[in-house]
Amino acid sequence: MEPILRAADILRAFGADGAVLRVRDVVDRTGLHKATVSRLLQSLAAAGLVERVKPVGFRSLTSLTPRRKLRVGYASQNERAEFPAQITAHLWRAAELYDVELMVFDNRFNREVALRNIDAMVRKRVDVAIVFTTIEAIARTISERLRSAGIPLIAVEMPLPGAPYYGANNYGAGWTAGQALGRWARRQWKSRVERVVLIELPEAGPLPEMRMTGALEGIRDVIPGIRDSQVVRLDGRNDFAHSRRAVREWLSTAPAGNCLVAAINDPGALGAIAAFRQAKHEGEYAVAGQNATLAARLEMRRPGSPLIGSVAYHPERYGAELTRMAIHLAQHRLVPDAVYAQHCFVGPRNVDRLFPGDRAIR
User: Fold this and answer.
1) Starting at the edge strand that comes first in sequence, how are the strands of the sheet with 231-235 ordered?
2) What residues contact residue 197 under an 8 Å CB cut-off, 6+ apart?
3) Which terminus of the chain is more exposed, N or C, with fewer CB under 10 A?
4) What residues contact residue 185 under an 8 Å CB cut-off, 6+ apart?
5) For the CA atoms of 50, 54, 56, 62, what is the dihedral angle to 10 degrees?
């Protein structure tokens, strides 16, 4: 039965306009594996349902009623923040490429708004829901409401019960930043570190918090002597303003000395830098962020900037990956429990090579 359904999907991909499609075009429109598409096109050609158009194309010789577009609902964490807004932009591009109807909702980092968005997805009968939230308290409620409605769910960045996950390997990303901070301090300060400041997000729960655990352990791997009493944990509440305020309040009573700062995201890192600059802290400080947003990349290019770098998650890859996962779920195909976004550390030495397009903005 499944090969017949996939063959039908391929025939529908041609539409009714006599389009000539390459194998890669059919792959993009159906979400099927390239080998599967090639094999089924050969079979359909042998059956006289499609014809070869030299040099590399195919044209359908029959017409199937187009299936209703797959309707995907996406609840973004907060469209005013750069990283989730970039994910949304690439989801729109992927939806056009894969011929998917995309409906976008903004959670505005608010639990009541996020739950209303879930209810809206249910009312609008989306086929698959993709949810990006960092509010752990509503995770189970989100999963239960969608499961009760029979809507498959994909979790972005924060795991949700019963849902496949796409996003960061939080511990690994934190470790990457911590290693960079530790090596920087060993090179610049001969490992003399008085404080390690972690800009956290307790509301997100223990799994995203693994990012901060990884950062601290990455620092300690390079500088083993750092004690728990030297570690300061501050709630940055996921944005620049709250992070700046939290660091500023801590600095008002903090002793002088060299500080390493690891933030759960770039707004937290930039907020910490603003607080240190305003306080004119006695001692040096070095900061590492997460997401490698444009604002962070511009900051790290400033001569003498304390932002030694940020971990990039490549949001430009999220759109296609999430859309393919949604298509596979709708087709009742197996999807991995977790797909981790590739990440790498971006600093002053490699930022121009990795993000050459920034030069037009500077």
Assistant:
1) 231-235, 195-200, 259-263, 285-291, 307-312, 344-346
2) 232, 234, 247, 250, 259, 260, 261, 262, 272
3) N
4) 191, 192, 193, 219, 222, 223, 258, 260, 286
5) -10
Parse the chain into domains and list their residue ranges: 2-60, 71-168+316-331, 170-312+346-360
Rg (CA), the chain: 24
Six-digit token string for 191: 């490992």
Establish whether domains 2-60 and 170-312+346-360 are of one fold: no
Q: Which pair of tokens denotes residue 264?
A: 């759960």
Closest CA to 340 of 132, 90, 91, 168: 168
Confirm whether pTM is higher than 0.90: no
Q: How far is CA 301 from CA 274, 313, 314, 315, 359, in A?
A: 16, 19, 19, 21, 11
Per-residue model confidence as pLDDT tens for the chain (362 residues):
677 878 888 888 887 667 888 998 888 888 788 999 999 998 998 888 889 888 878 988 887 765 678 999 999 999 998 999 999 999 999 999 888 999 999 999 999 999 999 999 999 999 999 999 989 999 999 999 999 999 999 999 999 999 999 999 999 999 999 999 999 999 999 999 999 999 999 988 887 789 999 999 999 999 999 999 999 999 999 899 999 999 999 999 998 899 999 999 999 999 999 999 998 776 789 999 999 999 999 999 999 999 999 999 999 999 999 999 999 999 888 899 999 998 999 999 999 999 998 876 65
Give CA 292 to chain center in angstroms: 11
CATH code for the domain defined by 71-168+316-331: 3.40.50.2300
How far lies 273's CA from each of 166, 230, 285, 300, in Å?
30, 19, 9, 11
Determine the residue type at 317. Answer: R
Q: Which two tokens stand for residue 60?
A: 């359908």
Q: What is the CATH number of domain 170-312+346-360?
A: 3.40.50.2300
Show Cβ contacts of residue 192 under 8 Å, excluding neighbours closer than 6 positions: 185, 258
Q: Which fold has domain 2-60?
A: Arc Repressor Mutant, subunit A (1.10.10)
